[in-house]
Task: structure prediction
Amino acid sequence: MNKKFKQLMAVRGMGAALTAFVGLIIIYVAFGLIQPQVFSMRNILNLLRSMSKYLLIGVGQSYLLITGNIDLSIGSVVAMSAMISATMMSSGVIVPIAILVALICCLAVGAVNGVLVGKFRLPPFIATMGTMFVGRGIAYMVNGNRNTNAISSGIGKEAADRFQNFFYYGSTAGVYNTFWIALIIFLIFFFLLSKTRTGRHIYAIGSNPDAAKLSGVSVLATVTKAYMVSAFCSFVVGLILCAQAGMGNMEAGNVYEMYGVAAGVIGGVSPLGGTGLLLGTFAGAAVWQTLENGLSMAGAPVGIQRIVIGIIVVGAVLMDIVFRRGIGGRKPAKKADK
Amino acid sequence: MRMNEVIVSMQGISKSFPGVKALDNVRFELRSGEVMALLGENGAGKSTLMKILSGVYTRDAGTIEIFGKSYGDLTPKQAQAVGVAIIHQELNMCRHLTVAENMFLGREIYKGFMLDNAAMEREAARVLGELKIDISPRQVVGDLPVSKQQMVEIAKALSTNARVLIMDEPTSALTSKEIDDLFRIIRQLRANGCGIVYISHRLEELAHIVDRVTIMRDGQYITSMNFQDVTLDEIIAHMVGREIKEKFPRVECEKGKKVFEVKHLNAGRMVRDVSFELYEGEIVGFAGLMGAGRTETTRAIFGVDPKESGEILLDGKPVSICSPQDAIQAGIVLAPEDRKKDGLCTKLSIRHNIALPNLDLLCNRLGVVSTTKEDAMCDQAVDNLKIKTPNVDVDAGNLSGGNQQKVVVGKWLARNSRVVMFDEPTRGIDVAAKVEIYNLMNQLKQQGIAVMFVSSEMPEVMGIADRIIVMCDGRITGELSARETTQNEILTYATRFENKFAQDEGSAKA
Result:
């Protein structure tokens, strides 16, 4: 048991990820004691469904954070996905085509981000801020600067119901489909990051891009893949929002990119690159949603919710830094040679 | 593999960077089963030439033949595939990844859809074992000391089945025992028929392993010859294009009054009960192995790392130093070990670097920097230290190592410092620049400034310092007069470890 635990803790970033899970349980139980309804099955199911968005966004953003980059265009890609698919569906285009077109557009944004950052070495903050504005602009323009009509007005009530149930209202094995979708995508990208070459290269680039390059790693390909992952996750969230509302909203996904950063950072993903586990991001997304859920059920105003969440994000990173360096900030002593 | 066969032939290689012609019609030949020293001052183009051979840079003109096959523009991956591996001067490891992950970066082993970590760790362990390097493949590289990281780099290069191995200053971070290990590995590789290119500024080492030398100067090929047929002086003459009279210039000074005293300083595991004194008119050398706690001592004195106990006296009066600001105010300054990381803001100009710690002198009451004063200060520093630069607005990062070091020193000399601590000031700089740094220390000594000189290069400590303090494992183990001591004596003190059996057992359990 002890040995197994040691092995587990030897995985880089596992400490922070487990800490986040412990934090999650404490927060959840604390809210449950204040407001017993938090423990109800209905609330748990709702929690799982609403954390799915943050989980997906967090996975995408974590990919970028681990490479030492950032993706600010996430929220805009969410809006693009929602608006493009909703506009097409509300004018009668069948669901698969609408989804496919939205997917292609979203991935294109990811590819552009990847090329700007990976090939032209634009600072990721600037490059993705550019695509953030452009993406939001596209989301506005798709339906002529207006939110779309209900999608059922185009594809008919039956098809609209099927779409909405698949992504939001329906459930499988007692749990909302939204969570299953997020979980499957999470597992796929978890596998990609921890068990494949691409994942290894993502960590390497975040740790030391020069060394990675000199070892024959293609920075362009790796960074582009990371941005595509992030764009794909955003695309799925866009569909979820579209299904939830039954229409496209131009403001969908606003500031979601920051929710992604928060989920990753609470879970121990280093914003400087090189370390972090998606397991931590999972915990981070859950912490985030539990806070939102718990605070609103306890009747706290939105303002308080924001303040608490802000403090939690900074606190998580602060704790990590103090934990790692000690309060004095002394550089770690070199280990004696054996 | 056949011995003594030309395996690398580079002819007429030229390469320009914006504003400089780094290589001009250079040729280079390497044979199997030999160690070729590539020598030259900083900026001679050695590293550039080798980066072309390993595919990091592409050449502007010239031909490259490796194992009889011609190559145009090599990429790092191609070079790796044909068997060329380079160990870069700046360590190039991903700190967050493990030893095995680093060794297999870019050529990971797969089992089905998954990375085969077990296979990679096994293979890494095999290579490390062959080299008799005692590191676990699962260890995270960032946790290893620099010297071990270097060993990992070598193991990484060898795990690609390299037949041409380029080592750029491989010993600059190693202790003498580790250097012995490295030489053992190099000899082993040579016997297996590898061709090894060895770039180093430490000419004393060459005799141990080198077969032939190629000398470059100012981006041009000068000559190549068998090592046995030349003397070190001839090599140096070829390198600098003139003769250097004295490798270790020494000036005699009257030993004056006591300037600086450290009493029972404790700071972490690497600084334990350190006490010493510095006097006017002398240079005190700090010798020891890597990790002896010398750097940590300078950092603790300078207020970078917190002190646990101890007293620091300047001119007989106790001073309290909790931060570098305190130290600088008191007149105690540090030229740190890692120029690029700790010594300079490499993206700022020489002007801004020199002004940075002296802004209190340069600013008026509103905090506006006086350009006139700044100009005067920088001009003086450039003149005094003979910093080779077109003007002071050049980025410090673009200077050669020797000139960077002068800027680091220059920023402290602009204020009236009482104690100057040099931590490995000559690491990675060429012979001529080293002499200039020595002269600079001698100047300080003559001005009555206490000079503390940390160096791992024994000949230089013995040649420059008047008194030598030896450290081992965080403690001072000996104090010697430089004139009367021998390398062996220093080494005896430097390896005087505490009997730590009990302790070792404890840490093995932890």
